[in-house]
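Q: Start with the shorter request: fold the first protein.
A: Done. Sequence, then structure:
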Amino acid sequence: MSDSSSVRNHTVYAILFSISLVHLLNDAIQSVIPAVFPILHNSLQLSFTQIGWIAFTLNVTASLFQPLIGLYTDKKPKPFLLPAGVFFSLLGVILLAVASSFVQVLGAVVLVGLGSSVLHPEASRVAYLAAGPRRGLAQSIFQTGGNIGQALAPIFTALIFVPFGQFGIIWFSFVAAAAIVVQFFVAKWYGKAGSSRSAASSKASVSKQPLPRKTVTYAISILIMLLFSKFVYVASMTGFYAFYLIEHNQLSVEKAQLFIFTLLAAGAVGTFMGGPLADRFGRRNMIWFSILGTAPFSLLLPYANLFWAGVLCACIGFILLSGFSVIVVYAQELLPGKVGTVSGLFFGLAFGLGGIGSAVLGTLADATSISFVIKLCAFLPLIGLLAAFLPSDKKLNMTQIELPQNVVKA
C-alpha cells in the first residue's frame, strides 16, 4: 500500500499519542500559571484584579496568534514550528520562576501563550493527518493529553509550589525540554505525511455539497456562544474556586487544589470518551449534552458540603470537558479544507474567552466577593440550550464522496 493511501486510510496511533504527550506537557506548563495564583498572590502581594489580568494576558496572547498561525499553515504547513513553539514555553517557565514583579509575570505568560498558540493549530493538523477514518477518536486522544496536563497542575502546586515556592516552577523547564525532543520526532513524520497528502490530492479530491454560507455563519455563532459558556465557567473554577474553598471552608491551599484536580482529572476522562461517544450518538447531541448537562451540577456546587463538592466537581469535569474535541471536529466539517484555520480559531477562542472571563471575574471578585462570582458562573452552562439549533449531523455530512480530480473539475 502506498504512503499516501496509508496516510488517508490508517490511524497512526504512535503519532497521535506523541502529540497527546506533548499536549499534556504543554498544558501542564500553561495550567501551572492559574494553579500558582495563591502562591503569587502571597509572594508578590497581587490583588485579584492583577491575578485576573495575568490569566487574561496568557489566554489572549494565545487567542490572537492561534487563528493567524492556523491560517498561515493552511497555505503551507511548517513542521519546524512544532519544536519552536515549545521553546517559547521553555523561556516563559524560566522567567516565571524568577519573576519579582507583576510586569515580569506578564512577560513570562506572554511567552507561554506564544508557545501554546503555535502548538494547538499545528498539532491539531497532525491529529487530522494521523486520524485516518477515526477523526473523533484522534481529536479526543490529542485533547485528552491536554486535559491530563491541566489536571496535574493542582497536584504540582500541592507537592512542589507550596513547599518550594515560586522558584519551584523551574522544574518545568525539564518538562519543556522533553516536549521539544518529542516534537522533533513528530515534525519529521509531519513533513513526510504532508508530502504524501499533497501527492494524494493531485489524484483524488473530495466533493462535498457545502452548506449555505448563512447556515455556516449561524452555526459558527452558536458554537462560539457554547465556547463562551464552557470556558468562562472553566476559568471561574480553575482560577477562583480554590479561593472560594479556602474562604468558606478554611481549607489549606494544598487541599483546595485537590478539588480542582478532581474536576480536571474527570475532565480528562470525559475528553477521551467524548469523541467515541459522538461517533456513536452524534456530534450535535454530544455537544448539547456536554454543556447543558453540566447545569444541574454547577447550580448545586456552591451550596454543597466538602464531600458532595468533590462528587459534583467530578461530574462537572467529566460532562463539561467531554465536548470540546467534538466541537472542533464539528467545526472542521462545517468548513472543510481549513483544518488549521478552524483549529486555530477555536483553540484561540477557548483561550481568549477564558482570559477575558478571568479578567472580568477577578475585577468582579474585588468589587463583590468570591462567593458571588462562583454562584453567578454556575448559571453559564444553561447557554448549552443553544446547541439544539445547530445543523444535524446528517445535514452536515451529506453528499460527501471521493472522486478523481478530473471528474470533480468536469
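Q: Next, the second protein, separately.
A: Sequence, then structure:
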Amino acid sequence: MTQKSHLAPYACDPADTRGRRYPEGPAPTRTDYQRDRDRIVHSTAFRRLVYKTQVFLNHEGDLFRTRLTHSLEVAQLGRSIARSLRINEDLVEAISLAHDLGHTPFGHAGQDALQACMSDDGGFEHNLQSLRVVDQLEERYPQYDGLNLTFETREGILKHCSRLHAQQLEISEPGGVGARFLRREQPSLEAQLCNLADEIAYNAHDIDDGVRSGLITFAQLQDVPLFDRYRSAAQAEYPDLAQPLQQRRLLFEAIRRMLSAQVYDVIETTQAGLDQYGPRSVQAVRQAPALVMFGEDMRTRSSELKQFLFKNLYRHPRVMETTSRAQQVVKDLFAVYTAAPQEMKAAFAQQALKDEGAQRARAVADFIAGMTDRFATREHERLTGRRLFD
C-alpha cells in the first residue's frame, strides 16, 4: 500500500522507505509505517509501559501518568502537528509509541542506577535500549529477532547517541541508524517532531501530576510565565474557576491553552524554517539545520518551565526519597543477577552464562530494563528478603 499525495516533498513517504533489515513484501492494506506502528502496539515491551514510572511510581496513585499514557500523549500531539506540516502522521505515531520502550523501571532513577552498574561495560542509555528492544529483544517472529521495523522508525527511536555508540552501530550496520551522528546530519522531520512533542507532553502532564500529588501548588505556578499566562486568561474568561472546588477545571483549562499555544508555535516556526531552507526531499532535510522547533520566546518560556519542574517536582524531597529506594532496588538486582544469572528468566540466564564480562552485564541490564516497577519490586523482595516499597 502506498501513501497518498497529500504529503509534502520533504516528508517521509513509505513508498520510498530505506526498508527493513530483513526484507519483507508489502502488506496489502497498510503502509510500512502503519505496519511498524501495529507491531509496536502488539509488542510485549509496549504493554509493559503501563506499569513503568513516569515521575510517580505506579502504586502511588491510579491517575498519575505512566510511560504508556505518556507515549500516547506524545503520539497525539505529534500527529496533530504532523498533519498541519504535511509530514507523515503514521511514522510520527510509530516513533512516538516506541520512543520509551527501552526505559527502565522507576523512570530516570532506574536509568541512572543501571548506567552506574554498566559504567565499565558499555554503559546504559534508554534511547539505545529502545532500539535494542525493537532490533533484538522482542521475540515474536520465527524469521528474526526484534520487530524488523523500517529504517525511518528506527532512526526516530534513536534520538540521542554518543559517538562511541554510533561507531559501534556503524560497524554492525554500515550507513544505518548510527551514521547520521557521525556525519552530523539531522534525522527526518518526523523524528525531529517526536523529540519536541515528547518535551511538550511531559512538561504539561508533569504540571498536572505535580498539582494532583500536592507537591506543587497554583501559588508556585504563578512564578512560571508560560503556565500563568494561560491560567490568568482562563480565570478572566471564567471567573467561577477561581472557586476552590473548580481548581481542577482551571488547571485543565490552563494546560489545554498552554498546549495549544505550543503546538501553534511549533507549526508556525517550523513552517517558517521550511520556507527559508526550502528542502525538497528527505535528504535535503537531513543536510539542513534542525527545522522542527519552538520560536525564540516559546523556547525561553519552555526552558523556564523545565527548570521549575526540575527544582520543585523532580527534586522534591518526597520524589527524591522514592528515587533513592528505586535506585537501590536496581543496584541490588544487578548485583544478584551478575553473581547468580540462573535467577533470571531462562533466555537471559543462558545469554549471561556465555561470558563472565561485558556480555553477562549486558544480559543482566536487558533483563532489568525490561521489568515493570512492580515486577522489579517483587523480584527484589524475593532475592534479598527486603521490602523497600509498600
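Q: Describe the second briefly.
A: Residues 247-277 form the longest helix (31 residues). The CA atoms of residues 59 and 241 lie 31 Å apart.
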